[in-house]
Design brief:
There is one protein chain. The chain has one domain. The protein has 1 helix and 3 strands; from the N terminus they run ββαβ. It has a 3-stranded antiparallel sheet. The chain is elongated and about 60 Å long. Helix content is 17%, strand content 45%. With 82 residues, it is an alpha+beta fold.
Length: 82
């Protein structure tokens, strides 16, 4: 057998609420062509739908504070020999 190589991506979204609380959501394997305008659409949706609320006072969503796109690679070494 040979070593196995795996590439993955994630989108880390830091969300702020009106009470000052923050939450981080990590989306695994987002589409590779996601744009800033699509992030703005997500922010608008979160602001109007009340899908997410803050933990402290059940506070409303305020804004997306930061978005980070991460790429990582993993190599699984083959330790079995013939």
């Amino acid at each position: 057998m040979a070593d196995k190589f795996k590439q993955s991506q994630s989108l880390v979204i830091e969300i702020k609420f009106l009470d000052g609380d923050t939450r981080t959501i990590t989306l695994r394997n987002p589409k590779s062509t996601i744009t800033t305008s699509e992030i703005a659409e997500i922010e608008t949706f979160l602001g109007t739908s009340n899908v997410l609320i803050g933990d402290r006072d059940s506070s409303d969503f305020s804004k997306i504070k930061r978005v980070v796109k991460r790429e990582s690679s993993t190599t699984i070494l083959d330790l079995e020999s013939d």
